[in-house]
Write a structure and sequence with these properties.
about 450 residues, alpha+beta, 2 domains, binds iron/sulfur cluster, Immunoglobulin-like, four-stranded antiparallel sheet, 16 strands, about 40% helix
């Protein structure tokens, strides 16, 4: 039998009828998805925190060196000229999220978003550890001020502030080198006011978010939740309540009732305070707490698990499910174009940058029957290591070159300007003649990679 799921209109879960905040106190839950989430949170917290500390190729695994305008990514080194490649990186992340959302719904929100990871994996754990389970927290919050309430609140918020400070220092380590951060921590804030302001503001935002704002970030700030209705369809995996199986809800002892015993356990564990039985809602962050909670109840009342489960809307309504849908083919087409574009873009990116530039002032001068162009080569080592470069003129065009320095060593991401004087007899001057110089980088393994750089040679009548 198939039944269309009902649409239940209710005010936003975190608002009271008078418009004030309905603070959500989710109950503890255990089960297979909670265990999976805990493992994922632990791994991701380790990754988020350790990335600036772990070194790959002598540099932090991920480091956006703002001062020197460099970007280190898992051993790759990029400078300001490579910034355009960030477009491919960011669009790749966006596309992955788009396709993953179309197929698997809000897995990102429930398992991997840093907000969820740190809220559920760190801050809520601290709260439970100090203030106890939901029932105790609600009772203590409703009661008047007491010593017991005071010390727990003070301890909780003190730890929150310490955690916010620690996280903001980790965050800034993605942009300022770790030795600099450690050095600044030990010095007077007046000596590094910019970094100090950043860390202070960041700590304040993190403390505000994780101590009070919490699910409101997902509900009213993050655009991803609002976009999900445009990215998903009736075959996308969501977390839903099997209305056909569950209704009419009521006591398990009444054989007329469906499987839902109306215990509201799925509601009290929800971190955004919604009732999943009202159907798919924007507020659902896909955490699966209600799945574990309901499975626990189904086991207690001797009914099969899965009354609340991962399924598509079609699956929940008892309709056939489809994997191949026009939207996925469309997204797949965009992803293929992105892949081709990215391979092409990264293939264009070379280990060094070299350009022939003209000196400022007169473009040429004529003396002793010769036309002379004074140039300079701008050379940038874009690798993560010191490299040796050879500068060799190409003499096919009849130009003679004076290059004072034909071999140079450059540090990682170092750059330099090398003077080049190009000379041609005035009677051989003709339009289209070019200054051409071959730049070779000697690899550690002895292999060379070379590029020919050129610029027009200018003279009288050219
Ligand atoms: S409805 Fe369920 S999956 Fe959605 S946020 Fe609430 S507990 Fe998590
Ligand atoms: S936990 Fe399951 S049985 Fe209890 S109210 Fe929710 S859907 Fe019904």
């Amino acid at each position: 039998m198939t039944t269309k799921l009902p649409i239940v209109e209710e005010p936003a879960s975190s608002l009271r009828s008078d418009g004030s905040r309905n603070y959500v106190h989710p109950a503890d839950v255990s089960g297979r998805f909670t265990r999976i989430r805990n493992v994922v949170f632990t791994v991701l917290i380790a990754i988020y925190v350790l990335l600036p500390f772990v070194k790959v190729g002598g540099h932090p695994a991920v480091f956006i060196d703002i001062v020197n305008r460099r970007f280190y990514l898992f051993g790759g080194v990029f400078n300001a000229q490579d910034f355009w490649l960030v477009f491919f990186l960011l669009s790749g992340v966006g596309l992955t999220l788009l396709i993953m959302t179309a197929v698997k719904g809000r897995l990102w929100c429930g398992y991997a978003c840093p907000h969820t990871v740190f809220l559920e994996g760190v801050f809520r754990r601290v709260e439970r550890w100090i203030e106890g389970p939901r029932a105790q927290r609600l009772r203590r919050n409703a009661a008047g001020l007491s010593f017991d309430k005071l010390w727990r609140k003070v301890l909780k918020h003190s730890l929150y502030i310490v955690l916010a400070l620690a996280l903001s220092h980790v965050f800034i380590s993605y942009f300022v080198s770790l030795p600099s951060v450690l050095d600044m921590v030990q010095r007077n804030p007046a000596e590094h006011p910019t970094a100090f302001t950043w860390v202070t503001v960041m700590s304040g935002i993190l403390y505000f978010n994780f101590s009070w704002f919490r699910e409101q970030l997902c509900l009213i700030v993050c655009p991803y939740g609002r976009l999900q209705s445009a990215m998903t369809d009736s075959d996308t995996m969501v977390i839903g309540y099997d209305w056909n199986r569950g209704e009419p809800r009521g006591k398990a002892s009444n054989s007329e009732n469906g499987d839902c015993v109306d215990c509201k356990r799925c509601v009290v564990v929800c971190p955004t305070g919604i009732d999943i039985r009202n159907g798919l809602q924007m507020e659902c962050v896909g955490c699966a707490a209600c799945v574990d909670a309901c499975d626990e109840i189904m086991n207690k009342v001797g009914r099969p698990e899965g009354l609340v489960r991962y399924d598509s809307l079609n699956g929940l309504e008892g309709k056939p499910k489809h994997f191949g849908r026009p939207r996925l083919f469309f997204y797949g087409g965009i992803a293929t174009l992105w892949l081709i574009g990215s391979v092409f873009a990264f293939a264009q990116s070379s280990a060094f940058e070299a350009n022939v530039l003209r000196h400022t002032g007169a473009p040429f001068f004529v003396a002793d029957g010769q036309v002379r162009n004074s140039m300079r080569i701008h050379l940038i080592n874009k690798t993560g290591e010191k490299q040796t470069f050879l500068i060799e003129p190409e003499s096919e065009s009849g130009i003679e070159y004076i290059i004072p320095q034909k071999r140079i060593e450059l540090e990682s991401l170092g750059s330099t300007y090398l003077p080049v004087l190009a000379v041609i007899p005035a009677d051989q001057m003709r339009p289209g003649v070019k200054v051409q110089v071959k730049i070779s980088m000697e690899g550690r393994d002895g292999r060379k990679s070379s590029r020919l750089v050129e610029a027009p040679f200018v003279g009288p009548g050219s």
